[in-house]
Amino acid sequence: METEKHVVYILKCKDGTFYTGYTNDFLKRLEAHNNGKGAKYTRGRGPCKAVFIEEHPTKQQAMQREYEIKQLSRKEKIALIQAQLKEVMTYANSEEL
How many domains does the chain fold into? Predict the structure, then answer.
């Protein structure tokens, strides 16, 4: 039995705004957002692109993190996104690949 993944994500909408959410099936949720069947906020703002994804072991931890991110300013969210991107790029350029 596969363990359920609990994901917190930030989407960048076509109008440049950010939407933060939680799901246990990210691809299905992203598709829903882009088909106008996701959150009310993202309807009419698609297509949306994932700019931040973070997995958590429990739903409670993921929802707590979602709340924390939603409290951040736009500037702080951009810094969070950039920090994750920097980490990804550092790993991509490492010899571990």
Answer: 1
What is the side-by-side order of every strand in the sheet holding 49-56?
A: 18-23, 6-12, 49-56
Residue 63 lies in a domain: yes
- Write out the two tokens for 18: 């950010």
- For the domain that residue 16 is a member of, what is the CATH number? 3.40.1440.10
64 within domain boundaries: yes
Q: What is the pLDDT of residues 11-65, one digit of tens each?
A: 999 999 999 999 999 999 999 999 988 889 998 888 999 999 999 999 999 999 9
Question: Among 24, 22, 18, 19, which residue's Cα sits nearest to residue 8?
Answer: 22
